[in-house]
């Protein structure tokens, strides 16, 4: 716009402007219409620098809306396990994502998800949790790896995943070291149980570590059922047993 107006000023000075020099003389005479147009160009740049067409605002908003749809449809940021895609909750920041080079996050789970799962253990010198093929070669666990069948336990947590069937066999064979291991996991904690319906146990834990350990004991047949200020009740392989509570050691960094 400034260039068009400057060109128009140059033409006007060439054809018409000189006729007014008699009535409106220059303080310092300029004999070049081109130079006058040059000065006018910068004058219009200053005058018009705040002029933004309304259509530009509309175009920018439409582009931002399109960006948000592309983010929602992007298969590279789609999570298959939970059938969850990205969701653009605002259209005002989408164009700024391309400027992001680093993401800094603390360990409180603001931008991350902390998941504690029971995957391996060592009992009496024997390690459980790895899987092996017929040639006794360790196999990497993937989403297609078959999980252990806990159907023998009607109170198991359906979401619990474990892949080494030898630990289940040791529990069924009543290995004393294995049973003592899971008995301790089911007893030594500060978890509170809640039975929402028959067989539907929900554990409320101060720490996800404790919740993962108690859930593991539950699936292997040592189920934490109830707590009172003085006792803890377990269901050990179908048998209900009550233990006297002597003391509580809070789950903190020293205890861990």
TrEMBL record:
Record's bilayer topology term: Multi-pass membrane protein
GO molecular function, one term: ATPase-coupled intramembrane lipid transporter activity
GO biological process, one term: Golgi organization
InterPro entries per record: ATPase_P-typ_cyto_dom_N (IPR023299), ATPase_P-typ_P_site (IPR018303), ATPase_P-typ_TM_dom_sf (IPR023298)
Protein name per UniProt: P-type phospholipid transporter
Phylogenetic classification of the source organism: Eukaryota, Metazoa, Chordata, Craniata, Vertebrata
SUPFAM superfamilies in the cross-refs: Calcium ATPase, transmembrane domain M, Metal cation-transporting ATPase, ATP-binding domain N
Gene Ontology cellular component annotations, sorted alphabetically: plasma membrane; trans-Golgi network
Keyword field: ATP-binding, Membrane, Nucleotide-binding, Translocase, Transmembrane, Transmembrane helix
Ranges that cross the membrane: 33-58
């Amino acid at each position: 716009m400034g260039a068009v107006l400057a060109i128009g000023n140059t033409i006007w000075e060439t054809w018409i402007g000189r006729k007014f020099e008699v009535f409106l003389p220059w303080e310092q005479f300029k004999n070049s219409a081109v130079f006058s147009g040059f000065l006018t160009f910068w004058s219009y740049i200053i005058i018009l620098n705040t002029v933004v067409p309304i259509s530009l605002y509309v175009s920018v908003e439409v582009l931002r809306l399109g960006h948000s749809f592309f983010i929602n449809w992007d298969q590279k940021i789609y999570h298959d396990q939970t059938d969850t895609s990205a969701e653009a909750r605002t259209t005002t920041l989408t164009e700024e994502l391309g400027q992001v080079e680093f993401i800094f996050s603390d360990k409180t789970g603001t931008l991350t998800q902390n998941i504690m799962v029971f995957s391996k253990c060592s009992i009496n010198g024997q390690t459980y949790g790895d899987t092996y093929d017929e040639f006794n070669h360790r196999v990497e666990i993937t989403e297609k790896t078959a999980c252990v069948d806990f159907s023998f336990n009607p109170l198991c947590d359906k979401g619990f995943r474990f892949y080494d069937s030898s630990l289940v066999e040791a529990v069924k064979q009543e290995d004393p070291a294995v049973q003592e291991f899971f008995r301790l996991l089911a007893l030594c904690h500060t978890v509170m149980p809640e039975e929402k319906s028959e067989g539907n146990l929900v554990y409320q834990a101060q720490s996800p570590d404790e919740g993962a350990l108690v859930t593991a004991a539950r699936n292997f047949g040592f189920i934490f059922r109830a707590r009172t200020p003085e006792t803890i009740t377990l269901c050990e392989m179908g048998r209900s047993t009550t233990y006297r509570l002597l003391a509580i050691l809070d789950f903190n960094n020293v205890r861990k």
